[in-house]
Amino acid sequence: MNGLMIIKIALRALARNKGRSLLTALGIIIGIAAVIAVVAVGQGASTNMKAQISSMGNNLLMIFPGSQNAGGFRGGSGTQQTLKVEDGEAILQECRFVTAMTPVIRTGVQCIFRENDWATQIQGVNTQYPKIRNWEIVSGDFFTEADIKSATRVCVLGKTVAAQLFQSEDPVGETIRIRNMPFRVIGVMAAKGTSAFGQDQDDTIIAPWTTVRRVLDKSKFNNVNQLLCSLTSMDNLTLARNDVSAILRQRHRIDGEDDDFTIMDMTEVTQMITQVSSLMTILLTVIASISLLVGGIGIMNIMLVAVTERTREIGLRLALGARRRDIMRQFLVESVVLSGVGGIIGIGLGVSAAYILGAVNHWPVVISPGSVLIALTFSAGVGIFFGFYPAWRAARLNPIESLRRE
User: Are residues 231 and 288 in the same domain?
Assistant: First the structure.
């Protein structure tokens, strides 16, 4: 018996019980749909996180005050005031892998323009900040070295702050009040979106670091919250970290003790977020795959019932000269068709569910052809695996005893 005839017979047998066939394939449909949707959302989230990380800066190296050691937290990064502007200048001059550096001084402020007010943070930086953060200015200009030297009360607004204070007006040239002190708006930054840490990068005001220190921070310590450095290339990351660490240890007179600073690069952040994202995707995929296992068991159960119901038919075919391998192929084809059709329907439902979830929750969705192909192959494999035993039982039936079966 040729393969085409076997397929026709198998399809005819399945068509006689359409409702049962559909219910049998339902487990495969749900399992494949769940896997496709979970993988699509997981890949989309991973892609979105990587884009957010890349938006944080150009070959970025971040240095925080404070540190932690292998035995546990000594205080954590940011809990000690150990970094100064002079440290950053020394790194820029002495480390051959650093092309730009800016100190960062942050403080929370309340800003007012006419009847509008907004609570945000202000960052004191230098003129290298847009280059390091790879952040464009869409309106106006950034402040200059002269503004830093004279601690001029000028500022550049993030998109969120500009929208809250000015709505649709152009803020460039206007004067806002920050802690009841006038600041002239000279520019607006391009939209950056949410960072990898979940913060709105556009909800900020940027000003000369000297202005923030003298006018707003008024700290008696000559410290900064952070140093941001841009490297020549991420290929030199290890050498750059070693050089920066050596420079800071020398300047801070650290000999045989733990660092009083923490160096972090975007590679570490990327690896951490990717690991968490991959772990969650794998966990959810395993949970969704249980439906495939249940669906496969359902197929095997129904195929065993079909063998019992069609015992006389099998015996008659064997008596008329059908080979045992033809019987086995027929039931295997029925099983594969059930799982294959279920897989195709499940792929359609999974893709639709992924896009619906993405649209409702504003999640990114990435559906790769590879994952769809794997899902389809896996569904066919489920049919072969769970259909083999019923097909084997059907092929091993004794034709004489089968014909006697009522």
Answer: no
| Final residue belonging to a domain, choices 217, 251, 285 | 251
Contact 219, 77 (CB under 8 A): no
Q: State which residues form the domain around 218.
A: 83-251
Give the chain's domain count.
2
pTM of this structure:
0.60
Q: How confident is the model at residue 306 (pLDDT cuts 50, 70, 90)?
A: confident
Q: Which of 319, 317, 347, 342 is nearest to 331 (CA)?
A: 317
With respect to residue 60, please indicate whether it lies within any of the assigned structural domains: no
Q: Based on the domain organization, do 282 and 388 belong to the same domain?
A: yes
Side chain identity, residue 31: G
Rounded to 5 degrees, φ, ψ at 40 are: -65, -45
Q: Is the pLDDT of residue 267 over 90?
A: no
**DSSP tag of 213:** I
Cβ atoms of 50 and 195 closer than 8 Å:
no
Bigger pLDDT: 353 vs 8:
353
The pLDDT tens digits of the residues spanning 24-79 come to 778 788 888 888 888 888 777 777 766 666 666 657 888 998 865 534 444 444 44
Q: Could you say which of 223, 251, 279 is where a domain stops? A: 251
Closest alpha carbon to 152 in 119, 108, 186, 114: 186
The answer to whether residue 167 sits within a structural domain is: yes
What is residue 194's DSSP assignment? B
